[in-house]
Amino acid sequence: MVPRDALLFGLGCERDESGWVTTDRTGRTSVPGVWAVGNVADPRAQVVTAAGAGSAAAFGIWSLIVFGRPPLRFGSSASNPAR
Ligand SMILES: Cc1cc2nc3c(=O)[nH]c(=O)nc-3n(C[C@H](O)[C@H](O)[C@H](O)COP(=O)(O)OP(=O)(O)OC[C@H]3O[C@@H](n4cnc5c(N)ncnc54)[C@H](O)[C@@H]3O)c2cc1C
Predict the structure, then answer these.
(1) Whose CA is nearest to atom 50 of ligand 1?
(2) The pTM is what?
(3) Ligand 1 centroid vs 16 CA: distance in angstroms?
(4) What is the tens place of the pLDDT at every residue in 31-65?
(5) Which residue, among 38, 30, 31, 27, has the nearest Cα to 62 in the 3D structure?
(6) Burial class (CB in 10 A: 0-12, 13-18, 19+), 77
């Protein structure tokens, strides 16, 4: 498979040792504001997993916009300043 990822690396996104863009679990790349999911980031992606990854990325982006940070675990001290 040859992903069409020139834009990502043109923006400076990091690669792993196999040449694929590196992301966190929500698709966030090493470049702030740049997200990548589906076959451009995962050679094993299928339609259902690519769609799920897109959903996770949307949630991560929403959390960043609304809270200024990635989603946190429920009950973590960072999500509840009173703890
Ligand atoms: C031959 C084949 C058979 C497959 N069979 C199955 C199957 O049976 N079941 C299954 O679940 N999965 C199957 N897959 C895998 C599945 O197609 C992919 O995992 C899935 O489509 C990934 O979705 P995506 O959104 O990441 O990428 P894509 O579906 O490839 O979508 C990326 C889109 O971005 C567009 N694009 C690219 N560059 C640019 C640009 N610079 N500007 C604007 N648009 C751009 C492309 O034109 C494309 O429309 C198959 C794949 C192949 C190649």
Answers:
(1) 46
(2) 0.86
(3) 21
(4) 999 999 999 999 999 999 999 999 999 999 999 99
(5) 27
(6) exposed
